[in-house]
Design goal:
By secondary structure, the chain is of the alpha+beta class. Helix content is about 25%, strand content about 30%. It folds into two domains: about 10-55 and about 160-240 and about 380-430, FAD/NAD(P)-binding domain (3-Layer(bba) Sandwich), CATH 3.50.50.60; about 90-155 and about 245-375, D-Amino Acid Oxidase, Chain A, domain 2, CATH 3.30.9.10. It is built from nine helices and 23 strands. Strand 10 and strand 11 (about 195-200) form a beta hairpin. The longest helix has 17 residues, at about 20-35. About 50% of the residues are buried.
Amino acid sequence: MSQTIPGQAKFVVIGAGIHGLSTAWHLAMELEARGTGSGKDIVLLDKTGPGAGATGVACGCVRNFYMTEPLHAILRHSVDVWEYDPVNLGFQQVGYISCGEANQQTDYENIHRSQNNAGYPSDLYVGNEAKNFLKSIWPDFKTDNVDVVIHELPSGYAGTHTVTAGMDRYCEQYGVQRHYGVKVTDLEVTNGQVSSVKTDSDDIQCDAVVMAAGAWNPQLWNALDKPNKLDLHYANGDINKNIDMWTYWRLLEGEVYVDKPYRTADDCDPPVLHVELMSTPVDDPATGKRIQDHFYTYVRYAAERVGKPGVQGGTIPIKLGPNATIDPYGHANDEYQADDWFADYYCATLGMLMTRFEGCRANFKDRRNGGIGAFTPDNVPIFDFVLPNAYMIADSNHGFKMAGVGKLVAKTLAGDATPDALKPFNFSRFTNGATFGASNSNCPWV
């Protein structure tokens, strides 16, 4: 890793999470392939190191279950990146299964159609076919409340530490100037463009900057003197006025040990499982007390963090509002640890899903956990130039799975027109009537 901060660079990428690493790596490859430069033209900055933000604490699911259909093409490109080197990127392509009640059947049908149209193969099961399909994978699955299922074939999960280390090595291999432990303090704007990136070490004159700082993106937004309130214009003519540009949400995820290996009926690593039962309440099996009036959980085999056989997952994040304490981040921040009810709720949902998880509350891994994300006004990512030479990757906490965004952004920075997959996520959508609407889900990610 480079030690001397250069005084000038063609490109400065801020943030070494999944997006910053992917952008720097793919941009270096693009410049080299086109004969227009190399990794030496790119400076990658992070105030801590690779994966120190949301990327490092993410559950690691790679999936395409979104009711916002333009996201399906983004994930098709992203799986191409995951498949490029699944070993060094830690990708386990086990598939992804989402389950819902009858009230979401139309949504599932639309998602299935859109995914397959985007080249992302998935299967749809309804009624008894859905129940039989689930039991063919998990014979102890309790299917009474499940009416519809999507099975995404290219999806899976990845180890967060593995992928950040792998992408960091690729950046090194392609000559990217990586500087970790360097904090960006300001962005200098001259004649409407970013002219330099100011750090707590030295300033860097630059031709272009990529803001891929996750929960810290709002700070960079403010450094550009951008508005923190917007009027949102929708296709039907509706306008929501004076809406916060950024809203922070607190994540709820954790791990549970298992007494027997978490495997499928044919002794394989199971698909990632996501279940939202909007009309099904969750009660504490020990006390009978109602914890929540709806069911939302996701779970995958925890191959990286538990230390012994276990599963990892979570539920809907908690809305904080337009202000939050970003530093210290994640597990180090006392303000944003999971609530006491989360372990009870998560373990109760697992027991409601499968017989094997009944009584698993005693096996919940007691550790600090937590992180926060900065969501956009419509909870959908922004991938766009916000100044002529300043590109913002604001994933609205959809990010880990979207490893392909950096590849698409790199092509744009290298001189191509904006790829079709990125066009719906422009910032101007809020004023030109293309703001995304609400989804039929209790979760802001869907």
